[in-house]
Amino acid sequence: MTRWSVIAAARSENPGERAHALETLLAAYWKPVFKYIRLRWNRSFEDAQDLTQGFFAGLLERDLLAKYDPGKSRMRTFLRLCVDGFVMNEEKAARRQKRGGAALHVALDFQAAESELGAGAVDPAKLASPESLEVFFEKEWVRSLFGLAVEDLRRLCEAQGKQRAYLLFEKYDLEAEGSNSSYAQLAQEFGLAVTDVTNALAWARREFRRIALERLREMCGDDEEFRREAQTLFGWEAR
Asked: How crowded is residue 104: how many other Cβ atoms within 10 Å of its Cβ?
Protein backbone atom coordinates (compact mmCIF):
# COMPACT_ATOMS: atom_id res chain seq x y z
CA MET A 1 0.00 0.00 0.00
CA THR A 2 1.38 3.44 -0.91
CA ARG A 3 1.24 6.53 1.25
CA TRP A 4 -1.45 7.85 -1.09
CA SER A 5 -4.07 5.28 -0.11
CA VAL A 6 -4.80 5.81 3.58
CA ILE A 7 -8.40 6.84 2.92
CA ALA A 8 -8.98 3.82 0.70
CA ALA A 9 -7.29 1.62 3.30
CA ALA A 10 -9.60 2.89 6.03
CA ARG A 11 -12.58 1.86 3.89
CA SER A 12 -11.08 -1.48 2.95
CA GLU A 13 -12.52 -4.80 4.08
CA ASN A 14 -8.97 -6.04 4.65
CA PRO A 15 -8.29 -5.93 8.42
CA GLY A 16 -4.58 -5.32 7.88
CA GLU A 17 -5.15 -2.32 5.65
CA ARG A 18 -7.72 -0.90 8.05
CA ALA A 19 -5.30 -1.33 10.97
CA HIS A 20 -2.58 0.47 9.00
CA ALA A 21 -4.97 3.33 8.26
CA LEU A 22 -5.80 3.67 11.95
CA GLU A 23 -2.12 3.72 12.91
CA THR A 24 -1.46 6.39 10.27
CA LEU A 25 -4.28 8.59 11.51
CA LEU A 26 -3.23 8.05 15.12
CA ALA A 27 0.35 9.05 14.43
CA ALA A 28 -0.62 12.39 12.90
CA TYR A 29 -3.72 13.30 14.87
CA TRP A 30 -3.79 11.87 18.36
CA LYS A 31 -1.91 14.74 20.01
CA PRO A 32 -3.94 17.48 18.31
CA VAL A 33 -7.15 15.63 19.24
CA PHE A 34 -6.10 15.16 22.87
CA LYS A 35 -5.05 18.80 23.29
CA TYR A 36 -8.15 20.03 21.50
CA ILE A 37 -10.43 18.02 23.81
CA ARG A 38 -8.55 19.33 26.86
CA LEU A 39 -9.08 22.95 25.80
CA ARG A 40 -12.24 23.00 23.68
CA TRP A 41 -14.25 20.77 25.99
CA ASN A 42 -12.46 21.70 29.22
CA ARG A 43 -11.88 18.06 30.13
CA SER A 44 -9.51 16.72 32.75
CA PHE A 45 -6.34 14.91 31.72
CA GLU A 46 -7.89 11.49 32.32
CA ASP A 47 -11.17 12.33 30.60
CA ALA A 48 -9.36 13.72 27.56
CA GLN A 49 -7.17 10.62 27.48
CA ASP A 50 -10.20 8.31 27.57
CA LEU A 51 -12.08 10.30 24.97
CA THR A 52 -9.11 10.43 22.61
CA GLN A 53 -8.68 6.68 22.76
CA GLY A 54 -12.40 6.15 22.42
CA PHE A 55 -12.59 8.41 19.36
CA PHE A 56 -9.85 6.59 17.46
CA ALA A 57 -10.98 3.15 18.60
CA GLY A 58 -14.38 3.82 17.05
CA LEU A 59 -13.24 5.84 14.03
CA LEU A 60 -13.04 2.90 11.65
CA GLU A 61 -15.62 0.82 13.46
CA ARG A 62 -18.25 3.51 12.80
CA ASP A 63 -16.90 3.96 9.25
CA LEU A 64 -16.70 7.72 9.68
CA LEU A 65 -14.17 8.12 6.89
CA ALA A 66 -16.69 6.82 4.39
CA LYS A 67 -18.45 10.16 4.89
CA TYR A 68 -15.34 12.20 4.15
CA ASP A 69 -15.48 14.28 0.96
CA PRO A 70 -12.18 16.06 0.17
CA GLY A 71 -14.08 18.39 -2.13
CA LYS A 72 -15.96 19.86 0.82
CA SER A 73 -13.35 20.12 3.57
CA ARG A 74 -9.82 19.28 4.61
CA MET A 75 -9.20 16.03 6.42
CA ARG A 76 -8.17 17.82 9.62
CA THR A 77 -11.35 19.92 9.57
CA PHE A 78 -13.47 16.82 9.04
CA LEU A 79 -11.80 14.95 11.90
CA ARG A 80 -12.07 17.91 14.26
CA LEU A 81 -15.81 18.09 13.61
CA CYS A 82 -16.04 14.34 14.17
CA VAL A 83 -14.28 14.81 17.51
CA ASP A 84 -16.82 17.46 18.50
CA GLY A 85 -19.66 15.13 17.59
CA PHE A 86 -18.07 12.25 19.46
CA VAL A 87 -17.60 14.24 22.66
CA MET A 88 -21.16 15.57 22.52
CA ASN A 89 -22.52 12.06 22.02
CA GLU A 90 -20.45 10.76 24.90
CA GLU A 91 -21.87 13.48 27.12
CA LYS A 92 -25.39 12.56 26.16
CA ALA A 93 -24.81 8.86 26.67
CA ALA A 94 -22.74 9.42 29.85
CA ARG A 95 -20.26 6.75 28.86
CA ARG A 96 -16.58 6.69 27.94
CA GLN A 97 -14.20 4.28 26.28
CA LYS A 98 -11.99 2.98 29.10
CA ARG A 99 -8.27 3.43 28.78
CA GLY A 100 -6.49 0.42 27.33
CA GLY A 101 -9.59 -0.79 25.48
CA ALA A 102 -9.20 -3.86 23.34
CA ALA A 103 -9.80 -1.98 20.11
CA LEU A 104 -6.71 0.21 20.44
CA HIS A 105 -3.25 -1.32 20.66
CA VAL A 106 -0.92 1.63 20.01
CA ALA A 107 0.84 3.11 23.05
CA LEU A 108 0.21 6.85 23.25
CA ASP A 109 2.30 9.06 25.51
CA PHE A 110 -0.45 11.27 26.89
CA GLN A 111 1.78 12.59 29.66
CA ALA A 112 4.20 13.95 27.06
CA ALA A 113 1.32 15.67 25.25
CA GLU A 114 0.15 17.15 28.54
CA SER A 115 3.66 18.42 29.21
CA GLU A 116 3.70 20.06 25.78
CA LEU A 117 0.52 21.90 26.67
CA GLY A 118 2.12 23.20 29.84
CA ALA A 119 5.39 24.09 28.14
CA GLY A 120 3.51 26.02 25.49
CA ALA A 121 1.93 28.15 28.22
CA VAL A 122 -1.43 28.07 26.46
CA ASP A 123 -3.77 30.76 27.73
CA PRO A 124 -7.32 29.31 27.65
CA ALA A 125 -8.74 32.83 27.62
CA LYS A 126 -7.13 33.41 24.23
CA LEU A 127 -8.74 30.24 22.88
CA ALA A 128 -12.25 31.05 23.98
CA SER A 129 -13.72 31.44 20.51
CA PRO A 130 -14.38 28.50 18.15
CA GLU A 131 -12.24 30.20 15.51
CA SER A 132 -9.18 30.41 17.76
CA LEU A 133 -9.61 26.76 18.76
CA GLU A 134 -9.76 25.77 15.11
CA VAL A 135 -6.49 27.61 14.51
CA PHE A 136 -4.98 25.91 17.55
CA PHE A 137 -6.01 22.48 16.27
CA GLU A 138 -4.51 23.17 12.85
CA LYS A 139 -1.24 24.40 14.34
CA GLU A 140 -1.01 21.29 16.49
CA TRP A 141 -1.65 19.14 13.44
CA VAL A 142 1.21 20.82 11.57
CA ARG A 143 3.43 20.39 14.62
CA SER A 144 2.56 16.69 14.77
CA LEU A 145 3.14 16.18 11.05
CA PHE A 146 6.53 17.89 11.13
CA GLY A 147 7.49 15.99 14.27
CA LEU A 148 6.84 12.71 12.49
CA ALA A 149 8.84 13.90 9.48
CA VAL A 150 11.79 14.84 11.71
CA GLU A 151 11.76 11.38 13.29
CA ASP A 152 11.58 9.78 9.83
CA LEU A 153 14.57 11.88 8.76
CA ARG A 154 16.53 10.81 11.83
CA ARG A 155 15.91 7.14 11.04
CA LEU A 156 16.85 7.70 7.38
CA CYS A 157 20.13 9.35 8.38
CA GLU A 158 20.93 6.47 10.71
CA ALA A 159 20.15 3.91 8.00
CA GLN A 160 22.35 5.72 5.45
CA GLY A 161 25.19 6.55 7.83
CA LYS A 162 24.47 10.27 7.64
CA GLN A 163 24.01 10.95 11.32
CA ARG A 164 26.18 14.05 11.05
CA ALA A 165 23.82 15.55 8.48
CA TYR A 166 20.95 15.05 10.90
CA LEU A 167 22.91 16.60 13.78
CA LEU A 168 23.64 19.65 11.64
CA PHE A 169 19.97 19.90 10.66
CA GLU A 170 18.93 19.52 14.29
CA LYS A 171 21.44 22.12 15.46
CA TYR A 172 20.77 24.73 12.79
CA ASP A 173 17.10 24.25 11.87
CA LEU A 174 15.43 22.69 14.91
CA GLU A 175 17.08 24.10 18.00
CA ALA A 176 15.94 27.57 18.99
CA GLU A 177 19.47 28.69 19.64
CA GLY A 178 20.66 27.18 16.37
CA SER A 179 19.72 30.32 14.46
CA ASN A 180 22.55 32.06 16.29
CA SER A 181 25.10 29.71 14.73
CA SER A 182 26.61 30.46 11.34
CA TYR A 183 27.68 27.84 8.82
CA ALA A 184 31.27 28.76 9.68
CA GLN A 185 30.66 28.15 13.38
CA LEU A 186 29.04 24.80 12.63
CA ALA A 187 31.96 23.86 10.40
CA GLN A 188 34.37 24.61 13.23
CA GLU A 189 32.24 22.75 15.80
CA PHE A 190 31.88 19.63 13.65
CA GLY A 191 35.35 19.74 12.10
CA LEU A 192 34.06 20.21 8.56
CA ALA A 193 34.57 22.52 5.65
CA VAL A 194 31.87 25.15 5.22
CA THR A 195 30.95 23.62 1.86
CA ASP A 196 30.37 20.27 3.60
CA VAL A 197 28.01 21.94 6.07
CA THR A 198 26.18 23.65 3.21
CA ASN A 199 25.79 20.41 1.26
CA ALA A 200 24.73 18.38 4.30
CA LEU A 201 22.08 20.90 5.31
CA ALA A 202 20.79 21.17 1.74
CA TRP A 203 20.42 17.38 1.58
CA ALA A 204 18.75 17.14 4.99
CA ARG A 205 16.27 19.90 4.18
CA ARG A 206 15.46 18.35 0.83
CA GLU A 207 14.86 14.97 2.44
CA PHE A 208 12.80 16.54 5.21
CA ARG A 209 10.50 18.24 2.67
CA ARG A 210 10.19 15.02 0.69
CA ILE A 211 9.32 13.01 3.80
CA ALA A 212 6.87 15.61 5.10
CA LEU A 213 5.14 15.73 1.71
CA GLU A 214 4.89 11.93 1.62
CA ARG A 215 3.21 11.92 5.02
CA LEU A 216 0.99 14.80 3.95
CA ARG A 217 0.00 12.99 0.76
CA GLU A 218 -1.01 9.99 2.82
CA MET A 219 -3.37 12.13 4.85
CA CYS A 220 -5.17 13.73 1.90
CA GLY A 221 -8.22 12.46 0.07
CA ASP A 222 -7.22 13.48 -3.44
CA ASP A 223 -4.70 15.40 -5.56
CA GLU A 224 -6.43 18.73 -5.15
CA GLU A 225 -6.47 18.55 -1.35
CA PHE A 226 -2.79 17.56 -1.37
CA ARG A 227 -1.88 20.56 -3.51
CA ARG A 228 -3.82 22.91 -1.23
CA GLU A 229 -2.19 21.51 1.89
CA ALA A 230 1.30 21.60 0.35
CA GLN A 231 0.75 25.22 -0.59
CA THR A 232 -0.32 26.00 2.97
CA LEU A 233 2.62 24.23 4.60
CA PHE A 234 5.46 25.02 2.21
CA GLY A 235 4.25 28.06 0.30
CA TRP A 236 4.48 26.37 -3.08
CA GLU A 237 2.49 23.86 -5.07
CA ALA A 238 3.96 20.37 -4.84
CA ARG A 239 3.76 18.03 -7.75
From this structure: 21
Neighbours of 42 (CB within 10 A): 10
Going by C-beta distance under 8 Å and a sequence separation of 6 or more, which residues neighbour residue 192?
164, 186, 200
Say whether 96 sits in a helix, a strand or coil. coil
Distance of CA 51 to the CA centre of its chain: 18
d(CA 162, CA 141): 28
HSE-CB for 169 with a 13 A CA cutoff:
22
CA gap 104, 50 in Å, rounded: 11
The pLDDT tens digits of the residues spanning 140-169 come to: 999 999 999 999 999 999 999 999 999 999
Q: Are 217 and 4 in contact (CB under 8 A)?
A: yes
Pairwise CA distance, residues 232 & 236, whole Å: 8
pLDDT average per 10 residues of sequence, the chain (239 residues): 64 82 90 94 93 89 84 90 93 56 64 83 59 88 95 98 97 76 93 97 97 91 88 72
Kindly provide the b/e burial profile for residues 146-176, where b requires at least 16 CB atoms within 10 angstroms of the residue's own CB.
bebbbebbeebbeeeebebbbbbbbbbeeee
Q: How far is 224 from 237, CA to CA, in rounded Å?
A: 10
